[in-house]
Structures are given as structure tokens and as C-alpha cells.
Design brief:
Number of helices: 9
Order of helices and strands: HHHHHHHHH
Number of strands: 0
CATH class of the largest domain: Mainly Alpha
Structural class: mainly alpha
Largest sheet: none
Strand content: under 5%
Radius of gyration: 19 Å
């Protein structure tokens, strides 16, 4: 049991050191395993017991965020009206609010492209299966492109928010949520 706790503690320390370095350097390629182990006060062998390289640490963070988003969206679809994209988007925002500072650190780095593409694919999959917007085309090919445009717009706006020092001129993630909410409300008005 003590060995398991030590293992969890080591992983937590590695992850914290990585997050701090990502925030400082803004670029994963400028971080070394040596810097992580020095900051975490562990040995290199301990690092390599848990991770193959620094990119594996980054992938683990990304996978956790994606898992959180999947669970949030699945729970929403199961218990609510999946036709309501506005509430659907608000569920994602609520999940982001839980760890805003961590996402800001991770998304301010150059490691984001593959993570964002994974997140976008999940969003497109969930919206394609679960949300029926009357304003979208009946042609499946055109509808796919329309959903892709919506996904890119929403996801990359959030990435810009997390990456920018001034948060796109907004005070908080709640403010961005209100802007997205207003935009999606205008979609609903078009459907009426």
C-alpha cells in the first residue's frame, strides 16, 4: 500500500513539475526530463517508471481532459434533451471551469494541436449523433462540413481564450460562456 501511495505521489509531482515548466517555457520542446526530475525532486529512473518521455506526460493531461469532456457530454445526452446544442455547449464550459488554470497552462504551450484535434473529433462525433439542428443541411456531406465549422469555431475560440494573456478581452470563462450562449441563442432564433 505504501508503495502504491509513493507511486501516486511521484506521478503527481512529475505532473506538477511539467505543468509549471509548460507555463514558464510555453513550448514542450524546451522542456527536458532532467528539468522535470529536478523540479519534482525525483530520480530519472522514477520518471521513466511512469512515463516514456515528456510527451507522454502531455498526452496523459490531454487524455484526462478528453475523458472529462466525454463523461460530461455523455451524462448530458443521457439525462437531457440532446437536441439543445446551447445547453450541450454550456456543459462543456462547466467542465472547463473546474480546471481553468490547468487548461490555461496546457493550452498556452505548443503541445496543443493533437489534443485539440482529438477534442474536436469528439465534439463532432457527439454533435453529429446527438444534436439535431433544423438550420443544418439535410445533405449529409454539407451537414458534416457545417458541424465541422461549428466545432472549429467553438473549440478554437476557447483555445484562443486560454492562450491569450488578456482572455480575448473578457474577464472570465463565464463571460466567454455568455458570448457562446448568445450566439447559440441566435441559432435557435433562426430555427424558429
Amino acid at each position: 500500500m505504501a508503495e502504491y501511495r509513493n507511486s501516486l505521489r511521484s506521478k503527481r509531482m512529475i505532473r506538477e513539475a511539467f505543468a509549471e515548466l509548460i507555463k514558464e517555457r510555453q513550448d514542450i520542446s524546451k522542456i527536458t526530463v532532467t528539468e522535470i526530475v529536478d523540479r519534482a525532486d525525483i530520480s530519472k529512473s522514477t520518471f521513466y517508471c511512469h512515463y516514456k518521455d515528456i510527451y507522454a506526460v502531455a498526452d496523459e493531461f490531454g487524455d484526462e481532459i478528453i475523458d472529462l469532456m466525454n463523461k460530461t457530454l455523455d451524462a448530458y445526452i443521457k439525462h437531457n434533451n440532446p437536441d439543445d446544442i446551447q445547453t450541450y455547449a454550456n456543459q462543456i464550459i462547466k467542465a472547463l471551469l473546474l480546471n481553468e488554470s490547468l487548461y490555461r497552462k496546457l493550452l498556452s504551450s505548443d503541445m496543443t494541436y493533437s489534443f485539440i484535434e482529438k477534442l474536436k473529433a469528439i465534439f463532432i462525433q457527439k454533435v453529429s449523433k446527438g444534436v439535431k439542428l433544423k438550420t443544418l443541411s439535410l445533405n449529409p456531406t454539407v451537414k458534416r462540413v457545417e458541424i465541422n465549422i461549428i466545432a472549429n469555431s467553438i473549440i478554437y475560440t476557447f483555445v484562443d481564450y486560454f492562450k491569450s494573456d488578456d482572455r480575448l478581452g473578457l474577464g472570465s470563462l463565464d463571460d466567454l460562456s455568455k458570448v457562446v450562449d448568445e450566439l447559440l441563442t441566435s441559432f435557435k432564433k433562426l430555427e424558429a
